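Notes to self after the Tuesday call (sharing in case useful).
The group wants a holo model before anyone commits to mutagenesis around the pocket. I volunteered. Ligand is magnesium ion. Logging inputs and output together so the record is complete.
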Amino acid sequence: MSENIRVMIPEEELTRRIKELGEAISKDFEGEEVYLVCVLKGAAFFATELAKRITVPVVVDFMATSSYGSGTVSSGVVKITKELDFDPKGRNVVVAEDIIDSGNTLNFLLDYFKDKGAKSITLCTMLDKPDRREVDVKVDYTGFTIPDEFVVGYGLDYDQRYRNLPYIGVVENV
Ligand code: IMP
Ligand code: MG
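Result:
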C-alpha cells in the first residue's frame, strides 16, 4: 500500500499566516521580552519560523512532552521528556505548539508555567482541531482551524515520517 498526500494548507499560506502571528505577538509584547518555548518535535518548524517574525527581544527554548496511554488513545496524562534550559520564573512565556487536539498538552503546560511563576503565559498554536477537544483551553493565537483529519507536514508526523514536508497535508492510502 502506498501513500498519497493531499495538500490541506500550502506553504505560502503558512508563511503568510506565521508572519501575521509574529506581528501580532510583537505588537502585544511591545517593550517586553518574550520567552518562546518550542514543544518538540512537532512545533520545531513552526516555532523557528515564528521566532524569525517576532521583532521584540526573544529568548528561544525547547522542551518535549509525551502523553501516556494504551496504544493510540491519549490518557490525558502528560509527562515532560525534555526539560527547559532556562527558568520560566518572571518571564513572558509564549508556548509554540504544532496542533491542539484533545487540549491535554496545552492544558498541562498552562499549569506547569503557572507553577513555575511565569510573569505571563500565552498559548500559540499553528493548528487547532476543535472537534477533538476534551479539555477546554483558551488559546491566544491560532494559525488555522482545521477539520478532524489526521495531518502531517511542517513538523507534524505520521510514525515519525513527513515532518519535513513544507506544507500541511492529509495522508491518503491508495
Ligand atoms: P493534544 O491531544 O492536544 O494533547 O495534542 C497532543 C499532540 O498530538 C500534538 O502536539 C501533536 O504532536 C499530536 N497530534 C494531534 N493531532 C495530530 C495530527 O493530526 N497529526 C500529527 N500529530 C497530531
Ligand atoms: Mg506536539
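Two things stood out.
The chain is about 20% helix and 35% strand.
The first strand starts at residue 3 and ends at 9.
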